Amino acid sequence: MKQDTKSTAASGGNDDKNESSQRIVDFGSAVSHNERGNIYTLTIVGQVEGHQVLPETAKSTKYEHVMPLLAALEQDEEVDGLLLLLNTVGGDIEAGLGIAELIAGMRKPTVSLVLGGGHSIGVPLAVAPKVSMIVPSASMTIHPVRMNGTVIAAPQTFNYFERIQERIVSFVAKNSGISEQQFLRLMLKTGEMAADVGSVIYGEEAVNLGLIDRIGGLSDALDCLYEQISQSRREPATVQ
Hints:
Blueprint: H1 2-27, E1 29-34, E2 37-49, E3 60-62, H2 63-75, E4 81-91, H3 93-104, E5 110-118, H4 122-127, E6 131-134, E7 139-142, H5 155-174, H6 180-187, E8 199-202, H7 203-208, E9 214-215, H8 218-234
Parallel strand pairs: 2-3, 2-4, 4-5, 5-6, 6-9
Antiparallel strand pairs: 1-2, 7-8
């Protein structure tokens, strides 16, 4: 009887490890546990997939996976903070902005770290957490709203583009230290990008502009997150 109990316990432990490993493979996520706090690490990589399914050969982050995950994390008492690792070329505007709004609305401690690139709609995703960080070698592309496929050449269509662009500019300015006017100037800058308008900025420049909070690496991002967790534990719980 004791042997069966040990066998069952061992099997359960293996199942948990297998489930955790599969989660890392499928969603690029992992949970780390230690005395300083439990951190959920989420990656936004490749292209943010929206309503259109991307080819299997394209590396993508699916918004229908990330959105319910973020909602569950916010309610999970065993998760103390969220670390967002970004290396994205951008993607679907509404999907990316929707994910960014969810992150910005979280009460839990959150930190983003831009690695490689945080381009296009990756910019709102980068600034959405409470603290944003970037490695010196990372780059961020800021450009006007663009759309692939058939576009109806009517005033209403261009008005729609402009309103989406205003939403992005407003969100970025609200969640970072850059002003709407300065971000819009970077977005509409000419002469820097081939066959297009916009700007490409790098780590230290992003911090100097106020777009990103700090320069740092993985250990810096983790320390910042643990600091937020420690502070949240000291603060008295608010009565709703």
